[in-house]
Design a protein that fits this description.
With about 90 residues, the protein is of the alpha+beta class. Helices cover about 40% and strands about 35% of the residues. The protein contains 2 helices and 4 strands. This is Antibiotic biosynthesis monooxygenase.
């Protein structure tokens, strides 16, 4: 399995960003081949973190591309800073 983690800082309206992600982006993630799970977390202090998990690297890479487009088209107002992106193979899970 592979995971992609995106950390957004300076989020201006976490509740609205969460609503938009829930109503639009989650469905896009489910369409990516190899989809396993997706989480959008309000870490407080204007920080939000997304984690997407896929069966293979291709799915994780596609999720990063789709996230960038979705943020540009739907969330730029609420997520003014580019995310810190970390992706890699899952080596342990529960």
């Amino acid at each position: 399995m592979y995971a992609a983690v995106r950390r957004y800082e300076g989020v201006t309206d976490p509740a609205e960003a969460g609503r938009i992600v829930d109503e639009g982006f989650v469905a896009l993630m489910r369409q990516v081949p190899g989809f396993v799970a997706y989480y959008w977390v309000d870490a407080g202090g204007g920080v939000m973190v997304s984690t997407s998990v896929f069966r293979d690297r291709a799915g994780a890479d596609e999720s990063i591309e789709r996230a960038a487009l979705f943020v540009r088209d739907n969330l730029a107002r609420y997520l003014p800073n580019p995310p810190q992106v970390t992706a890699g193979e899952v080596v342990a899970s529960a």
